[in-house]
Amino acid sequence: MASLRPASTVARLANTLSRCAATAAAPALAPREKTFQIYRWDPEKPGDKPHMDTYKVNLNECGPMVLDALLKIKNELDPTLTFRRSCREGICGSCSMNIGGTNTLACISRIDPDTSKTIKIYPLPHMYVVKDLVPDMTHFFEQYASVQPWLQREEEIDYGKEQLHQTVEQREKLDGLYECILCACCSTSCPSYWWNSDKYLGPAVLLQSYRWLADSRDHKTKERLEKLADPFSVYRCHTIMNCTKTCPKGLNPGKAIAEIKKLMAKTL
After folding, report:
1. What is the per-residue pLDDT across 41-89, written as a single tens digit (0 to 9) for each?
2. What is the C-alpha to C-alpha distance for residues 191 and 241, in angstroms, rounded to an integer?
3. Tens digits of residue pLDDT in 88-132
4. Which residues are 96's β-sheet partners?
5. Which residue of 16, 34, 90, 177 pairs with 211 in a disulfide if CB–CB is 3.0 to 4.6 A?
6. Does position 21 have pLDDT exceeding 70, yes or no?
7. Single pTM value for the model
């Protein structure tokens, strides 16, 4: 004789069947089609000129972020669409682009649920374009390397075996600096950088420079400042503050640049 199921097991089975039946009977959601206009340019196509392509995405079948929509378009509608992405968490800075007129990260930029409004997506402004939404970051990272973004000491130490201690107050000076992910959203929003990017280092690189100038463990403050002491590297900043307004990490590059100017006036 078959053993009887416990009452609790029977109840759970009944609840599961009830939920399945309710799901099956539920009416399908009406499509919520969102229109995306995306900048396209392929240098490998002879005679191809920059243009905007239009795509429609059903928001019921898409994640909440702009990067989700881009991945859906690439996977299901147009595999030729090209863009950078990596972490999906606002950490790597790869998916920086201009969305709806603002430089930001696609992975943390929410899709406006209003389907009557079109989202326009461009690569970061005033940079050479490799393809579609991919800007050429070569010059940007060359400028970053020029400020020597690493710890420099007067004496030789055995890194990894000796600790370089800081007080709580010394460590707090790095807050708002070390979080920069080099996405270039701030630099490419800066009119001064648009006009003089060959000589002016731009907000992102100068914030990174100040990160080492403010570090109590670094001994090359004067040498670092001397490398910046020309009419363009720092002083093309006119405190327009687009950089601070657009930073997707909520940092303040404009303040960091002002601190560099104060250090230069005090030290040099």
Report:
1. 999 999 999 999 999 999 999 999 999 999 999 999 999 999 999 999 9
2. 10
3. 999 999 999 999 999 999 999 999 999 999 999 999 999 999 999
4. 105
5. 177
6. no
7. 0.86
Instruction: Report residue 236 as tokens.
Output: 């093309």
Secondary structure of the chain in HEC code, one letter for each residue:
CCCCCCHHHHHHHHHHHHHHHHHHHCCCCCCCEEEEEEEECCCCCCCCCCEEEEEEEEHHHCCCEHHHHHHHHHHHHCCCCCCCCCCCCCCCCCCEEEECCEEEEHHHCECCCCCCCCEEEECCCCCCEEECCEECCHHHHHHHHHCCCCCCCCCCCCECCECCCCCHHHHHCCCCCCCCCCCCCCHHHCHHHHHHCCCCCCHHHHHHHHHHHCCCCCCCHHHHHHHHCCCCCCCCCCCCCHHHHHCCCCCCHHHHHHHHHHHHHHHC
C-alpha span between 183 and 95 (Å, rounded): 8
Determine contact, residues 35/54, Cβ cutoff 8 Å.
yes
Q: How far is CA 261 from the centre of its chain?
A: 26
